Model the fold of this input.
Amino acid sequence: MNAVEVTGLQKAYDGVEAVRGIDFELRSGEVFGLLGPNGAGKTTTIEILEGYRKRDAGEVRVLGVDPERDGREWRARIGVVPQEGELFPNLTVLEHLRLFAGYYERARPVEEVVRLVGLEEKADSKVRTLSGGQKRRLDLGVALIGDPELIFLDEPTTGFDPGARRAAWQTIRNLRSLGKTILLTTHYIEEAQQLADRVAVLRRGEIVASGTPAELIAGTASTVVRFRRDGEEVVIETEEPTRLLHELTSQALQNGHELVALEVHRPTLEEIYLSLTEEHEEQPE
Amino acid sequence: MRLFLHQLQAEQRLFWRSRELAFFTFLLPIVFYFLLGSAYGDEEVNGVDGYKFLLGGMIGYGAAATTFAGLALILVIRRESGVLKRLRATPLPGPTYIEAVLASFILIFVLEAVILVVIARFAYDVSPPSSLVSFAVVLLLGSGAFAALGIALTTVVKSAEGSSAVVNAIYLPISFISGAFFSEEAFPAALQAIGSILPLSHMIRLCRDIVVYDSSVWDHLSDVAVIAAWGVFGLVIALRGFRWEPRER
Done:
């Protein structure tokens, strides 16, 4: 069974459509990335799935339950890391985890969660003495204490330095290997590429592309071939790179000249993402 | 019940660790009792000993400071910092959480009132209330009504930054007009009229009647009714407008 099923989801705020009829599903045990620029509708979507917001139209099932009819047992099966939000500055890391552990019938052992999020050395420190990255790890710890099946991570590494980001990615991979299903929103392409089994790219409330990162790259037709001729750069986009290269190279060999600075370039996920989310800005609605 | 006690324990820890809040809500009425007592405790106020007179005022002020101001501040700060929203994502039922926070502040207020009575007894020779039942009823009725009004207040305070200023600007003048610090008989008629409709003036009067005159709460049902009416008013607003999520940014 799919952990999450969304069909035709719509949500507007004061007449402004934030989510315009999207469909996607999360298979159990996968990491799914919702990728998109700020304002694309990622947080609205994730907050509808978490039960914070009511949808205007469409069907949503999270662990088989409509989040608008959430109950305590359902809440115990999901973990939420919000995009922003503080904890209690005067409680220590361990005190936070014990407090939240008390809300669940079957909580994960507190020491285990401390290890899982890498806060062993800060276990007895008050939250106000933690760095931003350490607070974010505690956010994750608090979301994991109830041993949820499904974890929502809303921009988990925004504002991290590169080292902290890599550490967070490793933690998320560890969760995946524990069999958790994870829905991740991010506007970092590399994060989606590193972590997600499948991604959906959101732009202005619509899914403009979805699939595995490799499928997204394979799905774009063109390969770019560049070289220099008479000091000028030649750029050719082609859907048949083999044929083009064959023609170019055989011609060059026949004429006895070199294809200077020859490059064959497949678009990166980043370039595809940018073309999906930015190029369209010019087009009239 | 297990969840309630779990949260109540956490709330107690959170309150006493937050030094500023503990000082301004719990300690300040006790400090004021000493300060105002040194100013006019030995004089007669409205025909009674100043220390006796002041005790009722300080208990009422304590109720406003803890279960009204302190409770409102804590809830606004937690709402705006996203703590309440996060709690909503856990299996802790919302009503259980609110009940625990409420019980925590009522407990703090009752402790404060007991300390005031003990100080009055041993420092100023004021005999404790003869009817403990009446005294307990007034403490619980007053703090319950103020707690409802405190939760109602969170619906009009929009941001954490300004919350402390707004809450102080409301509860300090109310305490003053209600005669917590000085006898309201010296006030102009207009102020007295305003004071007479506020719940705090009725709570202070009840405290004085019970502490000073050894009367029973059942002889003052009109005061009880006014306090209860304010409590119901607060409860209605609280139930209608209470929010778990921070303001949209």
Q: What stands out?
A: The CA atoms of residues 19 and 91 of chain A lie 38 Å apart.
